[in-house]
Amino acid sequence: MAHTTVKEVLAALDGVDFPADKDELVQAASGASAQVRSALRGIPPDQYANREEVARSVRVDPDSDLDHSPAQRAEQARKGGRPGQSQHLRDAPKPPVEEELDR
């Protein structure tokens, strides 16, 4: 797993015109750090419609830049997601208790 953040990966893709496939994304990040290029080489060979799809598919340290609670990570694991998508980037709603505490 690459030790980078989603923000670093997306920053390397600033000039990319979407939709773009994996090879185009890797080529666009040729000037980025080795960790960012490694993270992009690890995404599924799909066509990506926008930066959000790339963010959901790139594998980074699960605790790097997301504030998911243990309950949200468990919900992600139960629901699954797009094949090849990093589990920690799948949408997970806040548990009702956390919503109540946020009020």
Describe the secondary-structure layout.
Layout: H1 6-12, E1 20-21, H2 22-28, H3 34-41, E2 47-48, H4 51-57, H5 70-79, H6 96-102
Antiparallel strand pairs: 1-2
How would you describe this structure to a colleague?
The chain is mainly α and 103 residues long. Helix content is 45%, strand content 4%. It is built from six helices and two strands; from the N terminus they run αβααβααα. It has helices at 6-12, 22-28, 34-41, 51-57, 70-79, 96-102, and strands spanning 20-21, 47-48. Strands 1-2 form a two-stranded antiparallel ribbon. The model has no long low-confidence stretch (mean pLDDT 77).
Quick rundown:
This protein has 103 residues and is mainly α.
Number of helices: 6
The topology string of helices and strands comes to HEHHEHHH
Structural class by secondary-structure content: mainly alpha
Q: Helicity, in percent? A: 40-55%
CA distance, first residue to last residue: 36 Å
